[in-house]
Every structure is written in structure tokens, then in C-alpha cells.
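Do me a favour: review this protein, sequence plus C-alpha cells, and tell me how the chain folds. Record follows.
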Amino acid sequence: MQRKQRFYFLLLIVTIVPLAMMAQPRWNWVRSLVGPTFDEVTSLAQGPDGNLHVTGPFSDSLSVNGLVVRGVGNYDAYSARINKNGNVVDADVYGGYDADDSRSIAVDNKGNIYVCGSFFDQVLISGEVFDAVGTFGGDMFLAKFDKTGVLQWANVFGSEDYDEVAPYVAVDSLGSVYLAGGFGATGIFGNKTLQSAGSSDIFVIKLSALGEVIWARGRGGAELDEAKAISVSPNGDRIYVTSTFSGSAMFGSKQLVSFFNKMDFAVEALSADGAQLWLKRIGHAEDDRYINTTADATGNLLITGAMSGKMSFDQTVIEANGEFFPDMFLTRMTKAGAFDFIKHFGGPYSDVGLAVTTDAKGAIFVGGYFDSSSVYDGYVVTSEGGNDAFIARFFSTGEFEWIRTAGGPYDDEGRGVAVSPDGIPYLAGVFDTYMDFSDLARIEGRFVDGFVAALECGPNTAFIPKVSSVTICEGQDSIISVKAGYPNYQWFANGTSLAGETRFRLNLNKLPMGQHKIAVRVTDFYSCERMSDTIDVTVTEGLPMPLITQAGNALECSVSGMMYQWYLEGKIIEGATDRTVVINGNGNYRVLISNETGCTRWSDNFL
């Protein structure tokens, strides 16, 4: 057994050479949104024409790829339209003379744009002034623009006795609009009113395409409760409201109680007429804060956020990787409220999902941030300093596909993700001072500023194992592979395609002696092709092919002077390390021979 252990140790030294980078889609372009102080991108949406729409708060003025917009007062909200090549089309400002905010933007299938936010006392929208519900109060606005940017209608919602924060908006394919957030005291929503049970309650309202409030629902308890995300199925038969709540809270006729009276998540599904369909709790023993959602093409709900400690997803408990810091989680819930899968990724420090989207082919995209280092299915990413932004793609099963990161010396976050019909991913968020995108020039700001970036479409072509060179003996089994799950693969040696090698893995045992540059072309579900980097494979003189012959009740290997290990039906025969082995039962016998330099070679099966 000592000889066998030494052989494997030698083989590891000979063949494994670390690879510096993961082969994954490259950054195509990046645009900064820069002002003199604090300027953020909080939400990203893409219209049917391919244009990108972003929103967020800014102070004083904001430069979007050369187009400068100026604020009305202290902090204002903005929206900007950027085409798929990264050129700004237009931008608008919403605000008054106090602090205003926007956290959510949506685009429907006709290209209409919906912007919502919060303001104090008065808000200016497309030249029209709208008053708050209460004098000098903080309320919410929701505005609809047609695809050319012309205002169609705007509504103000809120309370005379409570200052609401910016809400969240979603639209379905039928033109209905949905708004969710938090309210206090008596909330006025068009011709509907809601009464809060505590300092702040959850609300969700449905509006017609003309901006008329159809129904309103309130949820909550005695503590601070607030909706954090709203998503809707394409046909509007499921409205998903995801909220934070503390202690005991009523959701219609059902009650949820948080763990140890800390802040937990509630996920509720409503029907088109606002009736409750199901309600689930997600949480752990401490406060849970970060969560976001999207509905896929079939109406299922995708959720990302941050999970810490032992996190309960209804009846399923998942434990985070880090002892004191959260992991990013990704889960899918069916329309019936069952958890389809639950995945989590992270390292020793904080990993947070802040945005999630999906496409018609089922691929899932998550944006967020990580601190210092993070691990995704064995692949380690390292930040440039503090928190770095990331975008990751997952197969429809929730299995990890690839990740790209960007950042600078301070804290950077991905807060919005989108994907075009032809598979181009986009990431938007914030950065501090400057931010590096490895394939592009650095972007610079003045303090906290926003960014929008586009990647190329394409699969993950990283080699498994992650090596840049391999040395093997002729005829020796040695497998290299790339990520499984794509529709098409083609392997190449020295620029020539290898006939029949169209799977995700390649056995190098057929290569002749000499130097070979091995690569693979992978095609993903969008028909995006990407060539991998190359692996330098050196094939040295190998061992002769071992042949097995039978003499009575024993088998003998034709090659002498080697180390031997016999197998029966693919399993090691313990102690069978000589040139011969006694037959002990029927089945397929094989022998693996090796020498002191680490060369190995298998025999064929002997039955």
C-alpha cells in the first residue's frame, strides 16, 4: 500500500498546475452615473426594445454618460434610459425641495415605464407638481410614462401622520400595475384606505392600466413591518409580496410569529383579485434584512437575499457557511408555495444577493456583493477591497454556472440585474471612488456613484481541474472537462477538431507522444459560442499495453517490473498488488499498472 500512495503523490506533482482565471463571459462595456456626492442606482429594468432603465436617488446633479441632469432640491430621484450599446437616450428628475428617493422601476411588454419613489411635501414629475397627502409630509408617488417618455398619469399615496419610504413596483402582461411598501396610521390609496396595526404596516395595491386603484391589502402587527419586493406572474394570476416583519403579524386571517421577536421574512402569494393563496416564513434567530424576488415565465417565484446561521425556509433548515456572517441564497418557489430548491453560496464573510432575474430559457441571474472572498461550487472569488459587486448565472436547476465580479478599494454593490432575449447580462449598482472591471478601463467617481455594465453572452469554459498544463504518459487515462449541462461541445487539439469528441469531458489517453494544445468550444442555450483557453498537454513515452491471460485459477499481467492493482467489476481487490491474482468469483477483471515516474496504463476488461 505504501507504493500505491507514493504513486498518487508523484502523479499529483507532475500534472497539476494552478490556473489563474476562470474562463467566463467578459465585460463588454460599463457606464458611470456620477455626481458631486451621493448618487445611486437602486433598480434596473429592460424594455422590449432592448433599452435599459435605471432609477435611484442623487444629489445636486448627475452626469449619465455625458448627459447632465440637475436636481430640484436636496436629494432627488431620477430615471435614465440607456440603449444596449451603453449610450444614454434620455433622463428625467422627480423631486422637490427635500429628500426624495426611488428604489424601483419597471417596464411592461408595450414599453411603458413605471417609476415609483418617495418625496416630502411636493414632487415635480414631468413639469407637473403633485402634493403630499399631508402638509409637509413624506409620501409615495407612482408614475407611468409611455415608451417615448411622455407622462400618462401619476398618483400620490400615503398618510397624513406617517412618512413613507420609497415603495416597489411590478407589472403584468395585461397592463395591471402593482405597488408594495410600508405605510403608517391611515394610508390613503386612491379611493381605498388602510389602517396600520403598528408603527408601520405592509401594503400592496393593484392598479389598472389607467392608474385606478382596484384593490388594496394591508398586513402587519405592532412592530415595524414593510414590503421589500413585489413580483407578479406574466398573466397576473400570482402576486408575490415579500416583506420583513417582527414579532406577531397578521397576514389576512393568518398569523406569523418571527423567531425570538426578531425581523423575519414573509412570502405571500395573492390571486388576481387580492385573495390570499399561501403564506410562508423565512428566518433565523437574528434580524433578516436583505431579500428580493422575481417571477419566471411560468409564474414560479425566484428569491435571493442574505441568510445567516441556521435559516428556516418554512420547514427546511439550511446552515450558512460562515459562523458570524451571511451567505447569499437562491431559492425557487412553485406557484403552489413549495420550495423547489434552496441553494446558498459564500465564504467566511458577508455574501448578499440584492437582485434576481430570469429569462425565457430558465437561466437565473443574481446580483449583489461579497466581502473579501467567496466560494461558488469550489470556485473562489476575491474582492479588490471591502465589498465587491458580483453577477452570477445559474442553470434553471439552481446549479451554479459562472460568476463575474468588479470592485475597488471600498464598498461596491450590484443592485440590479437584467438579461436580454439573446442572452446579454447587465449589472447595475453603486461604487465608491473608483471601480475596476477586469476587461475594461477603470471607472472613477467622486464619492458614492452609480454604474451600469454589460457582459458578453456565453457559457463558462473553465477547465476542470483548473490547470494550464498537464504532463501524462502515452496511453494514460487523464480526464479534463468543462461545465456540464450545455447543448454543444467540440474539442480541439492544435487547432484541429477531434472527431467524435463532443461531450463535456475529454480523455487524453488517445493523444500520441508530443506537445498538444487542447481547447474546447462550448455553445450555450442562446447559441452563444465561446472558445476556452488552451491547456498545454505533454505526452511522454508510456507503458506497454497490459494484456491479461488466464492460467488455471489465476490471471497474469503481460508486463513485468511494474506496480499493480487489480480490480473486479470496477472495485479494488484489496491486497491484489502482484503481477498475478487468484480468480475469486465471476466478473470483469482489470489491472492498472504504474511505474516509479507516475506513468499508468489500464488493461482491457477480462471476463
